[in-house]
Amino acid sequence: MKSIIEKFEEKDYCDLLIIDGHMHSGKPYNFFSSGYTADSLIKSMDLNGIKLGCISSLHAIGQDAVKGNLEIKDLVAEYPDRFIGQFGINPNYPEELNCILKDVRDKKCFRQIKIHPYLHNYPIQGKQYHNLYAFGSENNYSLLSHTWGIKDIRDFDEIAYQYPELKVILGHSGGEIDAIMEAADVAQKRDNVYLDITISFNYQGLIEWLVSNVPVEKLFFGSDATYNSQSAALGKVVYADISDYAKTCILGLNMKKLLGI
Amino acid sequence: MTKPEFIDCSCMIGKRTSLPFFGPGDTAQIKSVLLNSGVNRALVYHSLSIEYHPMEGNNMLLEEIAEDNFFIPVWVVIPNHTGDFLLYEELKQEIINNRIKALRLAPSSIGLNYSLSEWSMGGIYELAHELKLPVMIDSDQISWDELYSLLNRHRDINLILTKAGYRSARYLYPIIDACKNLYIDISMYKNHMGLEHLCEQFGSKKFLYGSGMPLYSPGSAKAMILNADIAPADKCNIAGNNILRLIGEV
Fold it and tell me: Which residue of A has its CA nearest to B228?
């Protein structure tokens, strides 16, 4: 039987399920990324054997959540077998919230929530987000949030405690080293907390450390495309010094289970 | 189809003052990770050269990689006006005798703290020119304007910019276009479909595989080349042929 490295290097992806749990559509706001179109995302997914991508719009984590959610709705309608939609809100425009929640409810294209408290400069414990956590909890939407730094992790530890039915995915696993360590503790402690391994720095040894310190079933592969390269994100998992079982869980099986697909 | 040979152009070996939290902590571990990631050889400099002094660090490098052809030695150099490095002729002989293949600069205040101007580094540039040695520098050691100036003052020296970040395209594109003697290590340029676009704009001969070890995953940059939507010959160039050409091994 071929190892994951062999399958990857031979581009033999047929029995390897890879789901990218952290993707974006649109143009990054402060630097150039050549591959922001839907076709480019699909091309990159095909080159890397990525069957499915959980995707939010950069508009939805930026100024205009309504526009962004519409973009994702159209994208998923065009590629229903390739994308799982994540909707977002801009908590600085509370008047939009009810309309967005009404719009996404029962829409098959949206299966997850994506928030970015840093870009929106809005507290994780803020009222608008609480409305969203309650919605996710009651309607079985898992939540992926950008996290960076130890305070974010501690805030989501509280949120996970307050909303035990809400599945919380800590984006970038907290990003900074001390936050990653804290996130590992929280993921161990809370049944409903998971870690997204997307980090643009692709630290050597991080994946090995996470697998040693967090139940492997709680780790999700992600790339942050269209910011970052999906191949580079895959490489740090494929070549990590962990078992092939752990690699298959991280690359796709865990997200498949979470989404119930 | 020819399988690319991966030659890492951006790797530091040796013990560290402060350990990278997740990464390997000494030369044997670093080599083990590189081998497991399918890296064939690596150009390396020693941590002691940056974190202590190049005299001791460069010698330590030679001790640690002696008889091991996996490693290709790179020396960290400083100007010798203070008398704590080597005179021009001494340095030249040491470089030749020890088959040093490239020089590395670390001029910033968090590095070895010196000026890149001619009044400070003129002798080092002359030596790089005379021995046809490529010169390497991390992107956090030099501003874009300083880099542009250096490249234009010394068009006969090939300069390798290591660890250029994935957000740097708006600086990178015009400087690659303007300076034919600039080469880019892609270890940190993990921009979505970024390698494809760079190759489309500039061809594949300007770009080099680097791991960024011990801090970054060697498999990460390797995968970016393996899965890029570029021709097999371009993959071979970036993986190893370009750096071999720059150090005179092909």
Answer: A47
Mutation target vs A (from B190, B195, B216; most A CBs, 10 A cutoff): B190
Q: How many domains are there within chain A?
A: 1
Domain ranges of chain B: 7-246
pTM of the complete model beyond 0.90: yes
How far apart CA A196 and CA A211 sit, in angstroms, is 13
Residue A190, φ and ψ in degrees, nearest 5: -105, 125
Question: Which domain, by its residues, includes A80?
Answer: 17-259
In a domain, A1, yes or no: no
Which residues contact residue A127 at a Cβ distance below 8 angstroms, ignoring those fewer than 6 apart? Answer: A94
- Taking an 8 Å cut-off on Cβ atoms, the answer to whether B193 and A40 are in contact is yes
Q: Do A32 and B215 lie within an 8 Å CB cutoff? A: no
B228 and A203 in contact by Cβ < 8 A?
A: no
One-character DSSP codes across A123-166: -TTSHHHHHHHHHHHHHT-EEEEE--SHHHHHHHHHHHHH-TTS
Q: List all residues 6 or more positions away from A96 whose beta carbon is below 8 Å from its beta carbon.
A: A65, A66, A89, A90
- Which domain CATH number covers A121? 3.20.20.140
Nearest CB to B227: which of A33, A48, A240?
A: A48
Cβ neighbours of residue B89 closer than 8 Å, sequence gap 6 or more: none
- For chain B, the first-to-last Cα distance in angstroms comes to 20
Minimal CA separation from A91 to chain B, in Å: 27
Q: Is residue A21 part of a domain?
A: yes
Q: Is any Cβ of chain A less than 8 angstroms from the Cβ of B201? A: no
How many A×B Cβ pairs under 8 Å? Answer: 142
Chain A nearest C-alpha distance from B159 (Å): 24
ipTM of the prediction: 0.95
Return the CATH fold of B7-246: TIM Barrel (3.20.20)
Print pLDDT tens along chain A (261 aa): 899 999 999 999 989 999 999 999 999 989 999 878 899 999 999 999 999 999 999 999 999 999 999 999 999 999 999 999 999 999 999 999 999 999 998 788 999 999 999 999 999 999 999 999 999 999 999 999 999 999 999 999 999 999 999 999 999 999 999 999 999 999 999 999 999 999 988 899 999 999 999 999 999 999 999 999 999 999 999 999 999 999 999 999 999 999 999
Least Cα separation, residue B139 to chain A (angstroms): 15
